[in-house]
Amino acid sequence: MNYIRETCGCCDCEKRCGALDIVFVIDSSESVGLTNFTLEKNFVINTINRLGSLATDPDAESGTRVGVVQYSHSGTFQAIRLDDPKIDSLSTFKEAVKRLEWIAGGTWTPSALKYAYDNLIRDSRRAKANVTVVVITDGRFDPRDNDTLLTYLCSDPRVDVSAIGIGDMFDQIEENEILNSIACQRDGRVLGMRRFADLVAEEFIDKIETVLCPDPVVVCPELPCKSEPAVASCVQRPVDIVFLLDGSERMGLENHRQAKEFIENVARRLTLANGPSDEKNARVALLQYGSPTEQRVEFPLTHNLTVIADSLAAVKYMDSSSALGSAIIHAVNNLVLSQRDRVARRNAEVAFVFITDGITSSEQLEEGVSAMRRAEGVPTVIAMGTDTDEEVLRKVALGDMTAIFRGSDYSMLNKPAFFERFFRWIC
Fold this sequence. Notes:
Blueprint: E1 3-5, E2 12-16, E3 20-27, H1 34-49, E4 64-71, E5 77-80, H2 90-98, H3 109-121, E6 130-137, E7 159-166, H4 173-182, E8 190-193, H5 202-212, E9 217-219, E10 239-246, H6 253-269, E11 282-289, E12 295-302, H7 305-314, H8 324-336, E13 337-338, E14 341-342, E15 349-355, H9 365-374, E16 377-384, H10 390-396, E17 404-407, H11 416-426
Parallel strand pairs: 3-4, 3-6, 6-7, 7-8, 10-11, 10-15, 15-16, 16-17
Antiparallel strand pairs: 1-2, 2-9, 4-5, 11-12, 13-14
């Protein structure tokens, strides 16, 4: 966490890591896929959340600055610069990361390392700052690229490099050597994993946090707590949000009503698309589900707030059983796709928001999660109360425990603290 809450609950204690310049180099090639690219971005955001506030002035001698390079084929580099004067807070950094769009081309990893050093580090590094580069890739680089550039970052002894390789290919000795070259043959700086979902696992982020900030200082101000500033409401970033609302008897009528109120409040807070052809901003859909044969599209993806509000007012509580797997399949086939054509916008992040306790039939659950992956959906889970099925919640969240939002009961949904935290996440 970027803040450590004192036991009295009064004030926020801030973690300080000294002067840090951190650059993430993330693979945006076609083989990564949109869902995994979104997981890469979530990894960057979740990691920086742990490190306290960012430097408010890019020229300041102290504080943390963060840069990002996403790369694909030759010359297709996009960057968030370390010295960007617009990046002066966690909120502005998160917005910049979320606006990065998947390139979906080839893989020119060596050239990306050179680009990162030449354009983000060499001329903008601070004299007293520790510089760390974290490289994420899923595969071999294009043979047309210059392999001698794999060690480009190693020419500067003041730069610490960690390489994260994702996928089965890194079990092969020759491919693992690519990672070792990127990480300058340093022990403990090569990390491998099978799935992109493992990037956002708490245990892995703990490990990266230790690499980036091995000796943190915790400072507790003697001031009343302040609420964090609001961030842009998915402005300009295309997001198609599909809510899946549990209509089972476990939910209860009052909890169901509060969940509907929450969905409407989210829709009202969002910057909705201007029309059917608007490729930016947000759209919302709702599916209520019960038994394996009970799935009801309450409203499809829409930008029309009147349609959303009127549809929610007309939603009838199913008071049924729960079959989440078949509900996900139905949502994919009827809200995201239609007769194999994509209903969700081409460049939009498809956010699946599950309001459930996870206690559901296991029938078709694996198939449902696989369907969501194929549709490149990014899950968020809202689980209220303590009587939950943690295995199901973790599975639906693709292993990302930070994507599971919890509260003591459904009345928490519309409390400012919970609502703002969820909203910052989804946007």
